[in-house]
Amino acid sequence: MTATLRRLDDGTRYYSLTFGQWIAALLGCGVLYLAVRFSPLSQKWTFTAVLLVLAFIAVAIAPLTGNALGLSRYLAAIVRSTLGPKQYRPIAQAPAPVQGGVLLRAAPVTLVDEPDHDDQLWADDTPGVA
Question: Is residue 106 part of a domain?
């Protein structure tokens, strides 16, 4: 059954996999081939061990692909956060003075005479009401 509705940020899929998932599958096959080719263990043991490691990685990554960012954006955000500039202040340093605006010692209070009854508020606006 083909899904007819897509979200705008969904990747284009070919045979149910996105472009990034195809690349990950090909990389996994390459890792498996190289491990079986150059491992000193028997082919069965190497094949099983590599498949278990790749499956563990896939299961660990799978929940990340369901979030709003997507895996590639999530990993890019982690890299930017790790490699980006850090802005730390020493604890002993005083906070920077407030710039701009008006700094008041107390909130201004305005006293207003309030009428005794609500009908006096609207007496001027409504003709015929005393």
Answer: no
